[in-house]
Structure formats: structure tokens, C-alpha cells
Amino acid sequence: MTEPQQQPVFVIEKVYVKDLSLEIPHAPQVFLERESPEINLQLATSDNVIEGEIHEVIVTATVTARLKEKDKVMFLVEAHQAGIFRIRNVPGNEIEPVLGVLCPNILFPYLRETISDTVTRAGFPPVILNPVNFEAIYQQKQQEAAVSQPDQPVDNTTRH
Fold first, then answer.
1. What's the CA gap between 15 and 49, in Å, rounded?
2. Domain ranges, ordered by start, for the chain
3. Ramachandran angles phi, psi of 35, nearest 5°
4. Strand partners of residue 12
5. Do you know which Pfam families this protein is assigned to?
6. What integer pLDDT is reported at residue 146 of this predicted model?
7. Strand 72-88 to strand 38-51: parallel, antiparallel, or no bridges (unpaired)?
8. Per-residue pLDDT reduced to its tens digit, 79-97
9. Cβ neighbours of 107 (radius 10 Å)
10. Are 48 and 56 in contact (CB under 8 A)?
11. Taking all residues of the chain, what is their mean pLDDT, rounded to a whole number?
12. Among 20, 21, 45, 99, which residue has the fewest nearby CB atoms (within 10 Å)?
């Protein structure tokens, strides 16, 4: 007689800001500028096992607002939005997509709010980050890893 298959368990234990920094290197003069800044976003995800079935996933965004004509940084915000997730009874080959796609999709709205709120509190108009397709980023990373090192395990860190 076969044992009944246990149902997968996915629980969000905690969502939190792990790290947050804001730099306004040319304050207060930068507040007198009339030029609209160019916004650059760098995005990365990472994960690690805390213990057993408990995982930490971190989505990091670095937003830089630069005055193009003067090549001057208005502000730079870096936020690490993290979550602790309990994941149990998920097959080994399915855990990476959960950590690389599902968890970042849960964390991203919190990250977007953190960035927007921080920029607004710094005295600038809010920066609203566009939605991110973490599944496409994950698949691209998997394809790149398969091409570059076909026999090596895939690094689950994604950069965008």
C-alpha cells in the first residue's frame, strides 16, 4: 500500500525591510533643479535556507535618479525587501521556481511601496516601479546557466 502524498505547504512567515539606504549627494542644491531626472533601476533577487523548510528571499532594488545634462545624481535609494517563507512537501525540482518567482512576486509590491515612500519622504516626487515579470527573469537566468555551464547547478540569484 502506498503512502498518501502530503500536500505542499507554503506559508508567509514574515515580510520585512532588511536594509534601506538613501543618498542625496548634492542636497540642498539639487532641490532647486528644474530638469526631470533619468531614473535607473537595478533589481536582484537572492534566497537562502534559514533552517530546514524555512527560507529567506530578498528582492533588492537600487534606484538612481540622475540629471542627464549635468551628470549629477539627485538621489540613490537601495532597498532590500525580504520575506521568510515556510515551504514543505515541495519536490526538489519545484523549489527553485517557488523561491525565484513566487516569493519575489509576493515581495515586490512591498518593495515598490518602500521605494516610493522613501523617495517622497526625501522631498522628491514619488517613483513608482513598474511591475516586474520574475518568471521571465527566472527563465532567462535558467537558459543562460544551461548554455554557459550545462553540467553545473544553476545559481538562483537573478539580476535585472
1. 16
2. 9-146
3. -70, 140
4. 85
5. SecB (PF02556)
6. 87
7. unpaired
8. 999 999 999 999 988 999 9
9. 23
10. yes
11. 91
12. 21
